Amino acid sequence: MKEYIAWFVDREKQTQGFLKMLSRETEKAIMAIEAPADMGKTWTIQRMRHECSLQQSPNVHFDFRDRRPWDYLSIARQTRDQMGATHFNLLTETINNSTGVNIQLSSGAGASGDVDVDLDGGSGGLEVGGDVQVAGRDAITVKDNFFYVQADSETTRRAIEGRITDAFFTCLGDLAQEKPLVFFFDSYEDVTEQADRWIQSQLLARIRDGQLANVVIVLAGRELPELSRSSWRHCLASTGLQPFEREHIIEYIREKRMLMALDVDTIFKTSGGHPGMLGKMADIASLELEDDDDDWL
């Protein structure tokens, strides 16, 4: 991340807008950055994450280019692991109670291995038969068994997803009372169908409906969800990323990368101001300079 910060130029509009969101100076809580390839979306996100670090705001970064089979459960786990597992003990308990066994709907105390799913949202939670042991909620950190949901029916699967989702947002809401929390979703064009459904219907919808305070979302990608202007206008800030101007290239080449021998006008014309191309050209020039410095004597 150090290179992202040391070499960062421009994107002041997006950075300042994000800082207003982080300090809650605006009602906007979702920033949508839609731009073509090589326009610096990931660099912009890393710049924002640096601001989160300076302000000690817990944040989580998802880069959907990694092609992992993202769904609600992996998103919940990643959030917990990056924001601090001790704040998500209830979530981990619920995951452990919901995974690694043959889950069935039961009207009573079923046979060993069966699970009663409380569809009415009672305080009893999930009761697991058999020999499954779950750490107490008063433990410093509840350890995740990292099993997966095994359900015999779609009804059971939806019930388990609902219970884990509720536990996740309970933990998230408690943590958000202490300090602002930030979700970064990068390369959204590569998001899985399962993750996209949960992000839109659960995370973003709670922001829109005022059910999740002190949480900021940054979406970045070549393609983003189509959010209706009428219902999202109060909380959504949409922006793009433009090519660098000549002064930005001068700053990047001469002040950030210290490549004094390069002709700025040629670089500007060749790169078209596109950050990705500019970075590649600077990297090549740096390697050539290193080769020239080699002492073979």
What's the arrangement of secondary structure elements?
Layout: H1 2-6, H2 12-22, E1 30-34, H3 41-54, E2 59-63, H4 72-83, H5 89-98, E3 115-116, E4 127-128, H6 154-176, E5 181-186, H7 193-208, E6 215-221, H8 229-232, E7 236-239, H9 246-256, H10 264-271, H11 275-292
Parallel strand pairs: 1-6, 1-7, 2-5, 5-6
Antiparallel strand pairs: 3-4
Helix pairs in contact: 2-3, 5-6, 9-10
Taking all Cα atoms into account, the compactness measure Rg is: 23 Å
In the CATH hierarchy, what is the architecture of the largest domain at level 2? 3-Layer(aba) Sandwich
Q: Helix-strand pattern, N to C?
A: HHEHEHHEEHEHEHEHHH
Separation, N- and C-terminal Cα atoms: 36 Å
Classify the helix fraction into a percent range. 40-55%
Describe the structure.
The chain has 297 residues and is of the alpha/beta class. It folds into three domains: 1-57 and 179-242, P-loop containing nucleotide triphosphate hydrolases (Rossmann fold, 3-Layer(aba) Sandwich); 72-178, no CATH class; 246-292, no CATH class. It is built from eleven helices and seven strands. The protein has helices at 2-6, 12-22, 41-54, 72-83, 89-98, 154-176, 193-208, 229-232, 246-256, 264-271, 275-292, and strands spanning 30-34, 59-63, 115-116, 127-128, 181-186, 215-221, 236-239. The strands form two sheets. It has a five-stranded parallel sheet, sandwiched between helices. A two-stranded antiparallel sheet has the order 3-4. β5, α7 and β6 form a beta-alpha-beta unit. The longest helix has 23 residues, at 154-176. The radius of gyration is 23 Å and the shape is elongated. The two termini are 36 Å apart.
